[in-house]
Specification:
The complex is a heterodimer of chains A (103) and B (158).
Chain A lengths: L5 E7 L2 E7 L22 E8 L2 E8 L8 E7 L6 E8 L4 E7 L2
Antiparallel strand pairs in A: 1-2, 2-5, 3-4, 3-6, 6-7
Chain B lengths: L3 H32 L4 H5 L3 H7 L3 E5 L3 E4 L3 E4 L3 E7 L4 E8 L6 E6 L4 E9 L5 E9 L3 E13 L5
Parallel strand pairs in B: 1-9, 3-9
Antiparallel strand pairs in B: 2-4, 4-7, 5-6, 5-8, 8-9
Classes of the chains: A mainly beta (103), B alpha+beta (158).
Chain lengths: 103, 158
């Protein structure tokens, strides 16, 4: 079971700055383990972020994104109490959805 | 002690509700992914040009309006902070590419009317390379800005 995504969203001056930390190994498929075998790729491919149930941002990742992906973006508008939801899906088909409120 | 007994079923109910809510949200998550298919061809591309083409961008041109924020030196290639933004109107997609990584395209963001074309993330770099921020405009043009980031300890894709 994957760890929850940490989401911080702060509304200020008519916009909302969102900072996200997803928990994922993000194996590139190029790294070798101790015995010289290639560790198979395992990374988040798709990220979908919704505000109050409506999709506002779709992002696609390749294996070049760092372990435990960090993402910062700015929503036009948004206010305290708005519900943010982040869903990701990795190349093994695993998914995870987490929610947070704008503060 | 007696007081705690009546509370137990409530807590159970709450947990049950939470579980069903989570299931519902996971379901919702699935349906959102179906709308935009993952562009495997672009993410497998070995060059910046090829990846941009697969992402629907043509006529790639350098532009001062695309701002790329990257360090001059990265001590550790495992996590290099990259920021990109533009004030241009009509941006459809904005991407980060690392020219010398095994696959160039690192991340791609669909710019909707609800978000600013302003994103920061962290990427892996296998070696010193040019980093590109590319914006695909509504008219299909691809505008970019690039910067060389010198990597001291490469992350061979780790």
């Amino acid at each position: 079971m994957s760890e929850p995504t940490r989401i911080r969203a702060q509304a200020q001056g008519g916009k909302t700055t969102v900072r996200v930390l997803m928990s994922h190994e993000m194996e590139s498929g190029h790294r070798k383990d101790g015995s010289g075998k290639i560790v198979p790729s395992w990374f988040i491919q798709e990220v979908s972020i919704s505000l109050n149930g409506k999709v506002i941002l779709d992002a696609d990742f390749g294996p070049s994104v760092s372990k435990n992906p960090y993402l910062q973006f700015v929503i036009k508008g948004g206010k305290t109490g708005d519900k943010l939801s982040l869903a990701w899906k990795d190349n093994r088909g695993q998914t995870r959805t987490d929610e947070a409120s704008v503060s | 002690m007696k007081n705690t007994f009546p509370q137990t079923p409530n807590r159970r109910d709450a947990l049950k509700q939470l579980a069903s809510l989570t299931a519902l949200l996971v379901g919702a998550g699935y349906s959102t992914f179906a709308q935009a298919a993952y562009n495997k061809a672009a993410f497998d591309s070995k060059s910046v040009n090829e990846a941009v083409k697969f992402q629907g961008g043509g006529g790639i041109a350098e532009s001062k309006d695309i701002l790329l924020n990257a360090p001059d030196y990265a001590e550790n290639g495992a996590a290099v902070a990259i920021g990109m933004s533009t004030a241009l109107a009509g941006v459809r997609k904005i991407m980060i590419l690392i020219e010398k990584n095994p696959a160039s395209l690192a991340a791609s963001f669909e710019v909707s009317e609800f978000v600013e074309a302003n994103f920061s993330t962290r990427v892996k770099m296998s070696q010193t390379s040019d980093v590109y921020a590319v914006a695909v405009m509504a008219d299909g043009r691809a505008l970019f800005s690039k910067k060389e980031v010198k990597v001291t300890i490469g992350s061979c894709g780790s």
